[in-house]
Amino acid sequence: MNSIKILSFAKVNLSIDVTGLDEKGYHLLDMIMQMTNLYDEVFVQWEEDEKFEISLRSNKAFLPTDERNLAYKACLLMAEAFPAKAKGKIDINIKKHVPVAAGLAGGSGNGAALILALNKLWELGLDIDAMCALGEKLGSDVPFSIRGLAYGNKELGFGREEGAYPSARARGTGTILEPCPSMKGYLVLVKPPLSVSTKEVYTNIDNCEIPCRPDNDALVEALKADDYELIYNNMINVLENYTLNAYPKVKEIKDKVGQDQVARKVLMSGSGPTIFAVYKTKTQASIACNRLRKTGLESYVARPL
Ligand code: ATP
């Protein structure tokens, strides 16, 4: 095989709590991550040659095509880990559908896609744990992305027994993962027309008052028991305490999305700015999505994987 297509799924956070700082100053988290069926298409071609070369293009002109791109970075990481294999040309074409810098781990997904793709194309035979250990060096959302993409791209041959799963409780800096049941229902994702820097949010969150935190033990039990009242009560993202205050536009959009009485829950994903709403049926989600689009908001219907 010398080419492969990987679907690079976006995640949302059903909850985020910040529990402290590690010795390096990184924030310690306790959160539930959920893969959705909104994806980028990542095409990877491999041609053996004497010279090692990476070329990358995408349908978004503003995305970097060099080592600043996480997919490119993932190739360099794999080449460093497996120098004997890194002789040839890697051609990457990313068709982006997932909003960028949105709190949906789109870039991390693309990095994960390259690790999974090169594992196949270079016939490395790595298991998921080994790929996650490599992925962690790229970013803290990459191990979850590897597990979620491995789950969603069935033809890669990984199942739940091999450690592929679409939903997890994540602790530490986000890399210590435990599978948990996926949420049911449908989602409407709304991307406000602005970017929020993840770094900025974490730098400022320690100075914010946090009036309520998710009970992630209860949330996991509620997901297991399909207890939706308990699920919605614990869908809390403490990072909203910074982002919604610092970016009134995001708060305004969250309020607007929440005006729909049919929405079961409305929450910000990651450090923002994407807001998502949970609906019971696809029809409800489609109606809500169309209504939001008519007001000019970039909106998508998705479902949990
Ligand atoms: P997270 O939820 O992990 O914080 P995010 O969804 O907020 O991620 P990304 O879409 O991953 O954010 O993009 C964050 C930054 O990474 C952007 O500024 C973008 O330029 C850069 N980036 C690098 N590679 C990629 C990629 N392949 N796709 C999207 N963004 C990328």
Describe this entry's structure for a reader.
Helix content is 34%, strand content 28%. A hairpin with a 5-residue loop joins strand 1 (3-21) and strand 2. With 305 residues, the chain is α+β, with helices and mostly antiparallel strands. It has 10 helices and 10 strands. Strands 1, 2, 3, 4, 5 and 6 form a 6-stranded mixed β-sheet that branches. Strands 8-9-7-10 form a 4-stranded antiparallel β-sheet, covered by helices on one side. The structure holds adenosine-5'-triphosphate.
Query: If helices are DSSP runs of H or I spanning 4 or more residues, what is the number of helices?
Result: 10
Mean pLDDT equals 97
Task: Kindly state the number of beta strands.
Answer: 10
- Shape estimate: globular
Beta-strand percentage range: 25-35%
- The helix-strand sequence is EEEHEHHHEEEHHHHHEEHE
Largest β-sheet summary? 6 strands, mixed
Which cofactors or ions or other ligands sit in this model? adenosine-5'-triphosphate
Cα gyration radius (Å):
19 Å
Low-confidence stretches: none
